Amino acid sequence: MKPATKKALVVIAGNLVNPVLGVMWAIFAVSTWMTWSRTHSVVALLLFCVNTLFAVLFVTRRHSKAISNDPKDWMITAATILLSFSLRVAQPAGEFARVASQGIQGAAVLLILISLVALGRSFGLIPANRGVKTHSLYSWVRHPLYSGEILFYFGFVLGNLSLLNAVIFTCIILGLSVRASSEERLLKKDQTYADYLKRVRFRFFPGIY
User: Fold this and answer.
1) Is residue 206's pLDDT more than 90?
2) Which of 13, 51, 122, 170 is positioned for an S-S bond with 131, CB 3.0–4.6 A?
């Protein structure tokens, strides 16, 4: 596929997908607020904050210095997001699993919130350079936002055990790993990020991966 054709496809995809995602996050924010108003769940309140911040940062994100023109990156991003929507509530495994699930999800949402605040207007979905971030949690791992997502979905699956959820969770991890690799491949063209890669070795969890 010619570079000009790829670029045109990216523009068209962005014009179609971006408004839809912005509306979806706004809907999720309202939904989690209604859940909190009924249950007064701390996790629901944190999710409301996350979804609201997602929507705001997505709409106000900084113009990118460079963005991936590879349709594969767009497809993998969309597939990973859709997979997260496919997780289903299942029969709780027990009281311990329920409490552990809520605790892990609560910690994960806090991790996501801190990562989003650190990203600010550099937040985006498709691999792009909107400014390199190396402070806060980014001084520990390269993709703390993805770390938070992995922990959150792990907590959900722990409290809603099923083969389907386990398979979806595995696919989400693979999708996030591919997205992280694509982002690093694009960003390392920036010398600041290339130096950052040498300092911060791990992608998601210190000492593990």
Assistant:
1) yes
2) 122
